[in-house]
Amino acid sequence: MPTSHDIADLRREYALSGLRRKDLPEDPLSLFELWLKQACEAQLSDPTAMCVATVDAHGRPSQRIVLLKHYDEKGFVFYTNLGSRKAREITQNNQVSLLFPWHMFERQVIVSGKAERLSPTEVVKYFHSRPKESQIAAWVSEQSSRISARSVLEGKFLELKQKFLQGEVPLPSFWGGFRVSIEEIEFWQGRINRLHDRFLYQRTQTHWNIDRLAP
């Protein structure tokens, strides 16, 4: 087992690529789309995985990995149980941070913005595009609640799978999605000697301000 001393000595150089101001597009979504495309083409494990950070009523942050399901100029979309911890915290404070950790490319993207509930039409459309087993799982799990054993989940799943064997799985009233607006988005590219490239896009009413940040 690695000791504290062992991990303190773990390091490597980041030398795959660089990011220059003159190469940045005016619209950050263009660069995000390129980086995501490259992550998908390289067959990274879960290239759409992002860490969603929220804050509770006492100011305590929490994080979890979810999958990005859509993005456009309006923001980044994910789906969840509306009784989950993240959904409850977003209801209290809708300021959210997203992090895409594409380690293989020595890249990170951080998005900051406000999370808003998706419309019922958007939720229904996506819910019925999911595999049937995933639809059933949405009914089974009261996300973030305490359960006595895994067998409770498995038993309920089998029961509902039999119930919905022939028919359509209805959308649970407690299941929905959020769109996180893009107020700021930072692109991080690792560089040698820890002199990483960081560029921050900040939205104004008419355009995006772009600033290089010290690493």
Structure explained in plain terms:
Strands 1, 2, 3, 4, 5, 6, 7, 8, 9 and 10 form a ten-stranded antiparallel beta sheet that branches. The chain has six helices and ten strands. The protein has one domain (13-131, 172-212): Pnp Oxidase, Chain A. The protein is of the alpha+beta class and 215 residues long. It is globular and about 60 Å long. The chain has helices at residues 4-8, 28-41, 85-92, 120-127, 132-140, 150-163, and strands at 49-55, 61-67, 70-72, 75-81, 95-102, 107-117, 175-180, 184-189, 197-203, 208-213. α5 packs across α6 (150-163).
Task: Record keyword descriptors for this entry.
215 residues, alpha+beta, Pnp Oxidase, Chain A, 10 strands, globular
Summarize the structure.
This protein is of the alpha+beta class.
